Every structure is written in structure tokens, then in C-alpha cells.
Amino acid sequence: MLETDYPVIKAGPPVPGCIIQPGVFSMPPGTERYVVQGAGAVLIPVEQGDRFTVINDEGGQVCEVVAADTKGNVDAGVVGKKTNSDAVGLKALLAGADHSLRGLRMGLDSRNIDLAGAGAISFFNADTRHGEEIELAVQRDGVVVIAAPGGAMDMELQDTSTPLTVMVTRAVVKSHVKFELPDPLADPVLDLRVHTETAETYFVKAGDFIQVLDVDGRQCTDFQCFSARKLDKGIEHPLDVTTTRALMGHVYPMPGLHAKYYDQDMLPLVEVVRDTVGRHDAFALACAAKYYDDIGYPGHVNCSDNFNHVLAEHGVTARAGWMAINFFFNTGIDEQGVLFSDEPWSRPGDYVLLRALTDLICVTSACPDDTSPANGWNPTDIHVRTYSGEEKFSRAIAMRTTPDSEPKMTKQTAFHSCFEKHTRNFVEYKGYWLANCFSKSGPIDEYWACREKAVVVDLSPLRKFEITGPDSEALMQYTLTRNIAKLAIGEVVYSAMCYEHGGMIDDGTLLRLGRDNFRWIGGDDYGGVWLREVADKLSLNVIIRSSTDQMHNVAVQGPESRDILKKFVWTPPHQPAVGELEWFRFTVGRVGDDQGVPIVVSRTGYTGELGYEIWCHPKHAETVFEALWQAGEPHGLTPMGLEALDMVRIEAGLIFAGNDFSDQTDPFEAGIGFTVPLKSKTDDFIGRDALIRRKETPSRKLVGLDIDSAVDVGHGDCVHVGRAQIGEITSSMRSPILKKNIALARVDVVHSDVGTKVEVGKLDGHQKRLPATVVPFAHYDPKKTKPRS
User: Which of 121, 183, 298, 303 is the most exposed, having the fewest neighbouring CB atoms within 10 Å of its CB?
Assistant: First the structure.
């Protein structure tokens, strides 16, 4: 090579890599985002020169804006406008008993704002398209209250209340503040900032609450605590994560039944009440000097030394490395047993709320690790607040529909108080607490009650969406696999919803309430997001609004369900009576008589038995349940939880998202190929071309398995023919009625014929095998004669 033959290089400086992450981390300085939930309101302090935009997220939602000056006087001039209505919607919300508006009430009271005679600036109406927005400029310092008012949804009119998003652009950017600290959950007892690369100790009284907040997001914090009584006696027993894992049976406790942390004597110290992140570490020590020494950073500040420094005043012996709960620390263990870590999942304002179970001395750090992604490469502050034990905080886990969505905390369904009389065993499911099983009966008795008599089960977490407008049929015909053009008013159809590649978004049922009125009921909030995205892309004249919180439901299932409902469901002459209701039809009626509370009853279910679902507004739930329970007692009506529900649905071959299908599974592979009428549906729909290709060249099939062993199998267990793995278990159970171990499995089509012998692998998949046979799908009543009866 000649000296002049230099390699060809790419000119210019290096280009940063592209990372897609939630918008909260890329908003311009001085920009803030607030979400006003449907039938909710928020209070935002504003200053002269600020601007804010209100966006109608789903469409059809009225907005009321009330402004007040710094003295608490209601004055629309603060935003340069005049009132055009009375603030009836906001006043009605505040007059109610909604605990989620507690912070708003506190904010109004602290500023001496009296809304008795207040007027509002009203925007939007029932015909407003989703995404429409208004912008206001702040003329004077003060506050604005932005409300998305709404009452009980009329189930026929579909007038549900939906969210608004508020984007605030500040005139003056506070350079020293990256993100504002969220408002307290109540009046704090302690308000403590733990600055970056430091630690702080504090005392918490038994029964009080401890809120540990990530101020700017992507920041870890180590938490440790001691029984104050033990420390007074010279006994240094810190919280012990190994003991905790053994007692709770979880990697780390979460809100619910398995929520407590213990010390080495198995003394409970704290209980997790709320968690908006859901990703922490209870394996690694708090970072220590040796960790940094070994990776080439001798002398680096570390959490263990910080702990030692602040705990010395309490007489606690120093340690080289401290065991701790590493909140927000994102770790995992891979298939080779290697502990790995990455950036935290936490975002600005995320928190964990604990309850002290005894008097505690606590210590909290703001981790200083800037040598790895553990703190997003940029260590920041942590904040601690404590609250009186007299406060009431619900147990909750946060859910987000999309990465940019605001967190939604776990709630109780409107039927919770009715089921709570029979059990304390509730588990989190899709943002709600649902009964897992019942104290008096148990899953096996609940199962038999469903097969032989009747049960009632709370299914309120199902996601409901109201689809209205001239193009509503066109949208549903294009986004669902079933032929919606053939759907009659009063009819229900079960369908798949697919991506372009044929993978499933969700499955669910569609009710037709009118020519241009539909209600989609599925398992995931993203179904509504997807429908809106498609409608936007096609410029369709349609509004898609979530009504999940406006319509809760119980399923009444079993051979005697019809007789029970006939006793208390009244229907008008133009609607079918319960005894006339055909399979996959619905009727609109009332409880008792024409003056009773309104309900919708559909002949649908998830058990493989004759059954119905009753839908009502949450405020009517207890009335509905009381009438149902009174009518059902002579029939042996039994409450049923999720454990028994899982048993009956597996027997009946009814699929469950996350187990039996995902976005990598098409309807044919999920065992619901009947929802894709490729020959009779002549209109195009999303995923059609891919589904034609996948049907013609199938690779996997959902089958039933009879397992020749009483050993339990679980979701994800491998299925083998000889050495080769040819599939995996999706769901399984021990069937009481069939008296054998059964499963649903997705296997290669080569081995999917009925009668094929396979083996289910346990342990490492080879050391222990369970013989099994492919059988017809489904195991129980494959022709669905019972629900049709």
C-alpha cells in the first residue's frame, strides 16, 4: 500500500445514537404535562406569561376552566377570558365522594378559593373530535382548575366522560429545577430531600406511612430500617431481604397479600402499600467501596459508607456493605444465572409507599453510581415524605397503557364491597383488585358450583369502549376479523383484533347498540388506542371513548343462571326478556321493574356454561348485586374467584391473553380460526393478507393435551417428541370433572394430529418427562351445547 492510499472515512463528528423513550424525558425545559381524568379535575399554579393547551384526548368531552388570582378570588381575567357558564360540572364533582379529588380540595382550601358562586370558561362539546385543542395565555399570577366533568353514563346514549391532557409552557424556566416534585398525598409529617450521593436517617412511628420518591426519574435509592425498640436494647437487626423472600415467596414484596419486609427474627418491619414502578432489587448489596475499587474507581463515594456515616449517631456498627431494599434498581437474572442491571424504570415523581409496622429508624440514600446505567448515568436526588397513620391510602400498583401514558393506580371495582364480605384474598388484575378465591368454599367448590348450579364472578376490569359516529361500522369492519356488516342491533359477536402481520392485539366482544353505535369489550386499554390511531389514519368520522370506569359488570354463569336472572330482570316490550335472550345477544332492562336501576344483560360468558353478564354504572353495583344475591340464594348461587374461573375456561378451551396468545400469535395459532371468515367476509380488514398467508402455510397449532401424570405442569413448560422441543404449554389444570391433568399447548403442526404422543418436560426439560397425548380441542363440551342451551 502506498503512503497516499489512506482508508476512506466518514467525514464529520460522531452522531449520537437514537434512543426512543417516554416523552417526559424529552420535553423542552419549562414544559409540564397534566392529565385530567374523566369526571376529574386538576389545580395548576400559573404565572403571568405562561401558556397552556387543553387537548381533548378521546373526543366528546366538555372542559370547564376556573381561574383564580393569588388572593383566592375567582377571576377568568387571569387567563384573559370571560366566563360563559356556571361551573356546574366542577361543583358536582367536588360535591361527590370521589377520594381522587382530595388533593384538589386541599389545594382550594389552602388558597381560600370559594367556588360557590364561581363561573367557568367552558370549551368543547359532545361532537368534539379527539385531538382538538384550545390554548389560553395567563395574564396574571394565580391558579387554574381544569375539569373534565361528567355524571353516570347512560348505557344506551354512551355519554361517557373521558380524559383531557393539559400542556403548560412556563414563561420563566427554573434552571435549577428539572422536574417539579408532585403534590403530597396528604399533609406530610416529614418532608426530607436526600441530595444526590448522600444518605439521611429519620424516625417513623408505627402505623405511619413512608413515601420514597424519585424526583427526576431513572434514580436508585437504597432503603434500610431497624426496629427502634431493638436498637434501644443494642440489637442491630436491619431489614433482611433473604428472610423476606423466604416468607413472602416473591423476589420482592408488592402491594397485596405478599407485601411485608422482615428482619432476621421474622419481625415484620414495613408493608408495601403502593408502587408506581414495579421494578426493584432485593439481591444485591447497596453499592460499596469494594465494588468501585474492583472496577477501577478507588475512593468513589458509595451508599454503604453513606449509610455508615449517618447511622453512627444511632450507635449502629459500620459494615463494608449493607443489605438493603434497592428501590428503582433495575436488575434481573438471566438463563445463565448472571445478575444484570440496566437503567431504572422509574420516571419523575414515581414512588413507593410503605407503612411502618413498628417504630422504625430508617435510612435512605440517593445512589451515587455514575459508572453504569444504574442511575441513567446521571445520579440525582431522592425525596422522602412521611404521613400520619390516621391517613387512608388504598393499596395500588401503577399501570400505563403506553410509555407516554400517565400511571393509573389499582382500584376497587364497584362490586368489591359485595365480594369483600366473603373473602380477603384479592389479587391485582389489570388495574383492579379481584377476588382470587373465597374463604367459605375455595376454588374446587366454586368450580363445581359453576358446573352444577350457578356462580357470580366480578369481571369489571374488562375494557369497554364506546364507538359512535357515521363511520363507526366502517372502522369496526376494518379493524376486526369478523364480518361486522352482518351484525344486527342487539347482537354480540366475538372477534379477534390483529396487526398487519396477523399477530393478535386482543380478542373481545362487540355489541351493536344502533346503526352507528357499537361497544367494544376487550382485555386491554391499547385496543382503544389502536382504534383511534386507525380512525385518524383513515380520517374516519368516528369517536372512540373509554367507558371502563362508567360500566362495571358481573358474570352469572351456570345451569341455573337463567332461572336466577328471570326473577329480577325487567325488560320493556321492545327488548327481549331474559328467557327469550339467545346466545350472543343482549337486552337493555332494569332491576325489579320499570323504576329500577338500569342494566344491560348479555348472554355471554367465559366458563363454557349457560351464562350471562350484567352491566351497570358503578353507583348501581350494590343494588344490582343485592337483587342478584337474593334471587340466587335458593339456587345455591356461589361467588367465584379467578382461580376457579381459570379452571373452567381452560376446560372449555377459552383462551387468555398472555398465556394462550400474544402479538406473535395469529387467531389460527390461538385456536380461534373461526373468527377469521376469509371467504365470506369480502371487505378488507387489517391483517387479512398476512392471515391468508399464515392459514395456507401454518407452522403452529393450539391443541389439547391429556397428561398421563398427576404432576402439575405450567405455562411455558416445554413439549417434546424425543429430544426435539416441538411446542410449549400455554395453560393447564387438574380437571375435577374429567378426573385428569389437562393442558392447552401450542405445537408444531407436524405433531398436532389427535392421538400424537408427546412428552412435557420438567426440571431442565430432559431429566423429568410427563407422557401426554394430543386430544380434540376443547376438552369440555367442544360443540358448546351448554352455553347454547
Answer: 298
Q: What are phi and psi of 100, to 5 degrees?
A: -70, -15
DSSP summary character for residue 607: S
Report the 3 state secondary structure along 464-491.
EEEEECCCHHHHHHHHECCCHHHCCCCE
Least confidently predicted of 90-104, 152-166, 222-236, 589-603? 90-104
CA dihedral angle for residue 573, residue 575, residue 581, residue 584, rounded to 10 degrees:
170
Distance from the first to the final alpha carbon of the chain: 86
Amino acid at 732: S
Classify 531 as helix, strand or coil: helix
Note the pLDDT tens digit of each residue in 383-404: 999 999 999 999 999 999 999 8
Sequence letter at residue 696: E
The number of C-alpha atoms within 13 Å of 207 and in the hemisphere containing its C-beta is 5
623 phi, psi to nearest 5 deg: -65, -45
Beta strands, E only, 283-431? 325-327, 330-333, 339-342, 351-356, 360-365, 382-387, 396-399, 408-409, 411-412, 426-429
CA distance 409 to 399: 6
* Interacting residues of 141 by C-beta distance below 8 A, sequence separation 6+: 46, 47, 48, 69, 70, 78
Q: Are 650 and 778 in contact (CB under 8 A)?
A: no
Rounded to an integer, what distance in angstroms lies between the CA atom of residue 64 and that of residue 104?
Answer: 15
Give the count of alpha carbons within 13 A of 701, CB side only: 18
Q: How many helices (H) and strands (E) does the chain have?
A: 15, 44
Q: Look at residue 174 and tell me whether its pLDDT is greater than 90.
A: no
For 450-494, how does the pLDDT look when each residue is reduced to its tens digit (9 = 90+)?
999 999 999 999 999 999 999 999 999 999 999 999 999 999 999
Helix (H), strand (E) at residue 693:
helix 688-696
3-state secondary structure of 341: strand
| Predicted structure pTM score | 0.93
User: Do 465 and 528 meet the contact criterion of CB atoms below 8 Å apart?
Assistant: yes
E-strand stretches of 149-195 = 164-169, 188-194
**Cβ-contact 770, 713 below 8 angstroms:** yes
Is residue 132 a contact partner of residue 59, using CB atoms and an 8 Å limit? Answer: yes
The Cα-based distances of 194 to 212, 360, 383, 643 in angstroms read: 10, 18, 6, 43
Q: Which range has the worst mean pLDDT, 223-227, 402-406, 721-725?
A: 402-406
Spatial CA neighbour of 733 closest among 753, 710, 756? 710
Q: How far apart are CA 522 and CA 508, in angstroms?
A: 4
Q: Which pLDDT band, with edges at 50, 70 and 90, does 175 fall under?
A: low
Residue 253 is which amino acid? P
Which residues have C-beta within 8 Å of that of residue 229, sequence separation ≥ 6? 358, 359
- Burial degree of 683 (CB within 10 A; 0-12, 13-18, 19+): exposed
Q: Are 496 and 660 within 8 A, CB to CB?
A: no
In this structure, the strands spanning 411-412 and 432-435 are parallel
For residue 679, the cross-strand partners are: none
DSSP letter for each residue of 726-744: EEEEEEEEEETTTTEEEEE
Phi then psi dihedrals of residue 94, to 5 deg: -70, -25
What's the residue count for the chain?
789
**Identity of the residue numbered 127:** D
Averaged pLDDT of the chain: 95
CB atoms within 10 A of CB 173: 11
- What's the CA gap between 534 and 517, in Å, rounded? 17
Annotate 260-294 with b (16+ C-beta within 10 A) or e (fewer): bbbbeeebbbbbbbbbbbebbbbbbbbbbbebbee
**What's the rounded Cα separation, in Å, for the pair 196 and 379?**
6
Residue 28 burial (10 A CB sphere; 0-12, 13-18, 19+): exposed
Q: Show Cβ contacts of residue 233 under 8 Å, excluding neighbours closer than 6 positions.
A: none
Please tell me whether residue 224 adopts helix, strand or coil conformation. strand
